[in-house]
Amino acid sequence: MRLSFELTEAQQGQLNAIAQQRGQTLAQMALAWVLRHETMTSVLIGASKISQIEDAVGMLNKVEFSGEELQEIENILK
Fold it and tell me: Is 0.85 surpassed by the pTM of this model?
């Protein structure tokens, strides 16, 4: 399972658009996407401010993805 990516600016924009449609930041959606994998039990965040922790925890408000969202994300990451 590939979970490390280097994204182009265009890919970032496309993923950000999906995140906005979900009512999330790109960081929140990325954390939710990683945690949807059964083998993942936790994620590490590099927070140096309380606001960064609050943003990351905000991901818990929407952790489920529709099949269409997952397909769109997978297509972008190819």
Answer: no
